[in-house]
Structure formats: structure tokens, C-alpha cells
């Protein structure tokens, strides 16, 4: 099994590509050892000293470190991923599904605007962000402000504010004049 790694814009995260499906549909972010009970793969990764976050995507795994050097953490993480896939164990624990972000909020009269925002996020934003080992999903729209949930390498990334303001906000404002600002949830 050959696992590729890619740097992300967030120096605290590294993207691992196992060359096979991880989740297929949806994403799952696990930020603690207790949350990792939802995924046998994440449990193995949290056993590596220094790992403090795991994000599972369609065909990638993003690992966030608390400290330490990637040169020391990377071999242990690669070993944990390889052991997991070679064991044949499932990625998710029985009865667990990829998580949703929770309830969306917006006024009924804004439904058409929200549909356009969601379409732009799905087709133009999420694919690009997935390339960097993260995910951004719509959470709400109120008084011209779009609220987005940032996960994986996007969460805590030093360049995430620039991504939101210079990238996503400008894109949405261009196509949806009602948008005045974009904020993380």
C-alpha cells in the first residue's frame, strides 16, 4: 500500500492520500480522543503522540498535530493508516454516519438566495478546499451575512481568514449581490 502525503496551507495539518476511498460521501471531523470512538481509523491515529485532530474526507485523511515535528510524526501516522486499511476494519464504527453540521438557519424569504449560495459553495469552493485537506459547508444566512463551517485543514489555518474574505466572500458577492460578508461559525 502506497500512501501519498501533501502539505496543506495550514502548517499544523498534513493531508494523507491512501489511494482508496476513505468515506466516499460526507466528511467527519474528530477533535479529541473521545470523539474518535466514532471511527476505528481515527482511534488509531489519536494513539500517535502529538495528534490532536483527524478529518476524514472522501479519499483523504487530514491529521492535525498539537506540536512536534512532522518528520517524527509522519512515519507513525503512515503506519497507523496502513495498519488500519490492511486490517480490513471499517473507517466508521457501526451505526455511525458522516456527520452533518447541524441545522441551517435562514429566513424563508431568502430561500432562493441561499440556494444560489449553496450551489456556488458546492461547485466552486468545496472542491478547491478539499484539495487542501479541508471542507467548508453552509450553515446560515442572515442580514446579508453568510455563515460557514470550516473543517479539517481550514479549521485554525492562518490563511483561512484570507480564504474567507478574499476568496469566498468576493466570489459570493460577485454572484449574489445580497451577500455583504462571510463569517466562520
Structure in words:
The protein has 185 residues and is of the alpha+beta class. The chain contains four helices and nine strands. The protein has helices at residues 40-46, 70-87, 111-131, 160-175; strands at residues 4-7, 13-17, 28-30, 51-56, 61-65, 105-106, 134-142, 145-152, 181-184. The strands form two sheets. Strands 1-2-5-4-3 form a five-stranded antiparallel sheet, with helices on one face. The protein has a four-stranded mixed sheet with strand order 6-7-8-9, covered by helices on one side. Strand 8 (145-152), helix 4 and strand 9 form a beta-alpha-beta unit. Helix 1 (40-46) runs antiparallel to helix 2 and helix 3 packs across helix 4 (160-175). The protein is elongated, with a radius of gyration of 17 Å. The N and C termini lie far apart (38 Å).
- The counted number of beta strands is 9
Report the uncertain regions.
Answer: none
Helical stretch tally: 4
Lateral arrangement of strands in the main beta sheet: 1-2-5-4-3
Amino acid at each position: 500500500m502506497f500512501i501519498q502525503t501533501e502539505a496543506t496551507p495550514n502548517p499544523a495539518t498534513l493531508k494523507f492520500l491512501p489511494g482508496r476511498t476513505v468515506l466516499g460521501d460526507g466528511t467527519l471531523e474528530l477533535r479529541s480522543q473521545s470523539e474518535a470512538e466514532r471511527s476505528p481509523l481515527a482511534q488509531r491515529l489519536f494513539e500517535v503522540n502529538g495528534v490532536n485532530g483527524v478529518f476524514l474526507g472522501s479519499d483523504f485523511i487530514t491529521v492535525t498535530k498539537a506540536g512536534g515535528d512532522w518528520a517524527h510524526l509522519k512515519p507513525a501516522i503512515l503506519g497507523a493508516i496502513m495498519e488500519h486499511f490492511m486490517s480490513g476494519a471499517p473507517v466508521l464504527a457501526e451505526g455511525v454516519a458522516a456527520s452533518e453540521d447541524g441545522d441551517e438557519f435562514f429566513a424563508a424569504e431568502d430561500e432562493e438566495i441561499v440556494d444560489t449560495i449553496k450551489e456556488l459553495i458546492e461547485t466552486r469552493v468545496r472542491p478547491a478546499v478539499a484539495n487542501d485537506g479541508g471542507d467548508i459547508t453552509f450553515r446560515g444566512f442572515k442580514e446579508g451575512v453568510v455563515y460557514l463551517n470550516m473543517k479539517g485543514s481550514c479549521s485554525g489555518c492562518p490563511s483561512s481568514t484570507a480564504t474567507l474574505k478574499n476568496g469566498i466572500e468576493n466570489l459570493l458577492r460577485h454572484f449574489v449581490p445580497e451577500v455583504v460578508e462571510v463569517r466562520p461559525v
